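Final report, section 2: Outcomes. Of the targets proposed, Secreted protein is the one most frequently requested by collaborating groups, and we therefore present its record in full.
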Amino acid sequence: MSTGLIILLIVIAAVVVVGAAILVARTRGGHGGTSLKRRFGPEYERAVALHDGDTKAAERELTERVERHGDLREQPLDGTERQRYADRWTAVQEHFVESPREAVAEADRLLAELAAVRGYPDGERYEEQLAALSVHHPRHVDGYRQVHRAARLGAGTGESGAQTEELRSALLGARALFDELTSTEPGRHRAPAGAERTAPAAATHSHARSHTPWALHRSRPKES
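The predicted structure is given below as tokens.
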């Protein structure tokens, strides 16, 4: 084999290696920087804050979440299951009138159960369940985090526990995630950050309107 041919083969091999390295870098880059900000939205900012502004550490954590849970496929709910969960959520919100702390604890348990039914890690593994939800529902997962925290703070406490308005806010925040987990629109939560969602059909969210009782709105007085 001539020297010229050997050099040519070496050059070709080098080009192939460099090309492969660039491809791998681009593939990995899909999980970082701007892509992660777009995917996680407020969860990205929260992760950065938790890492004291260290964006690299935050991006490593978020990338690990995507690698662990990105391939998860939500299990469907049939109409009967969807209505059953909607009815239970309505009952939780109505219970809030008489016992805010108990209602928030019920909402926490209901979200954990619903997420598990949809294919997420079991509620007994809260942190893992939360991480998986953050990958697929990043814009509303904090509502679950808040209601879980409120439920734990309120457990076993008297009047010195979480205040009613804080509990009300937590429950309302958690409802956004509940709506997504019971939605009939597959992939609705994967809309790009900043993208406007079209108004859902009335049939799709008829139950959503029905499970927001007046008890959670301060502007309407409690009836006797």
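The radius of gyration is 23 Å.
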